[in-house]
Amino acid sequence: MASPPSPASSTSSAGSTHSYDQDRPQTLEDLVNHFVASKRSLNTQTVLWRANELVNTARGRLEENAVLAAKNTAIRNIAEQQVDALEAARRGIDVVEAEVTVEFKQLLHDVDTSFAGLNSTLTVLRETPIEAVLQPPGTPQKHLYDFIDSAAVSNLEVTLRACIDRYNAAREILDDSNDAFDTSLDNLHSSFENVPLTPASASNPSPIPSLYQDLEVHAREAAQAFQSLVQHYDLCVTALRHTEGGSAAATEATGDTSMHSRDEFAPPPEPMSEEERLEMVAVLVKDAHDLDDVVTEIRERGSEMTFLLTQIDNHINHLRNEASALSSILQMISQITGEVKSHIATSRSFHTSWLDDTRPTLLNGIEEWENQRDFYERFDLAYAELLVEISSRRRRHEKTKRKAEEAQRELDRLHAEDERAREQFTLAQGDFLPRDIWPGLEDPPRRYEVRAVTVEHNPDSSQHDEDEQVKSIPQLGRKVVERALTRVKRRM
After folding, report:
1. 344 part of a folded domain
2. Is residue 104 included in any domain, yes or no?
């Protein structure tokens, strides 16, 4: 034919439905058979119509591919940026929570340490009895703990427990918020991972342009092949017109009167020599030999175009599915972004509660318990020093008493000596001195006494004798005093 089929799609002439001997003269019947075969081959025009539809559809897919590819890339980039922003917000909440948690654990440890120290001191007070000699007779045994305000310790403990409970409640609310945030992010990541990724490579981001080019090549080649069929058909018509009875024979063979009608209205064929006619018939016979191959090629190209369009549609469907999934991702991000405000508000409320309530309350509690422990340790030390002081007072009292007794004995001696001296003077000189020469001549000597002075702040003490005064300074046992001294020295 005028345009031979390409090597890729043509088949061997051995597979043709007709076998012609090019050297044998062609009869009218042969020409009619060629004409019928060529007319039948023109039915492949439906392939061209379909090819035209395929090309138009593929062109639309090509445009859609460009739009979807650009849109999906943009949405994916935006979604990744939004996910990064959400992750940053979540990490920010974690940072606040971690800082508070670390300090809370440290303060809780300090609270426990302070409370343990205070309890240790209170245990000492519970186990330290008041010496019986310091209490009125018949008084039940008391300990140092009985003299402290234990309600202050209990109230502070209740306050700190309530503070810790408030912290735990705020932390639980924060944990619930964070769990919801994490669940949303996990769902988002899972959905992101399940977004269908359209097959592509770095060198060929989309196969559609290449597929479209191949499809156009097939359409163009099919059109050229069909054009050769049309030319062959025209050549068959021309050959029949230049053959006597050709048109009638063709009409009878095909039952199509269109050729006969065309002959009636068509101008007479141009004169042709027998040599030209034989040459034309030779070309016709040669083309007829390739007719089936050309038809097969057209049909194969049509099938290949259908296959290529299927590949294009598959890729477009990937892009559409990816676009739909990315659209769902954006909706999820929009929803999570709206929820983030609540999560951040919960984190801020937790941090504010920590700064304004939990932290200062724990610090004040630690300070208060340290102060109480210091006070009660001083109380225990003061009691030990009191025992030492009582022993010292008793010792000084005994020394003073001895000195007073010694002084009284000296005064009594001097008084007796004065009496004897006066008596001797009276015996020696009394007869010679008139009594009115000095009114105090016969007076006895003045007596002096050493006695305990009544305590001024206790006016009733004048009614008690010296023994009652002495009872105000108890007599402590030696071991009691030694233990007290040991405790005092140990804490100095």
Report:
1. no
2. yes
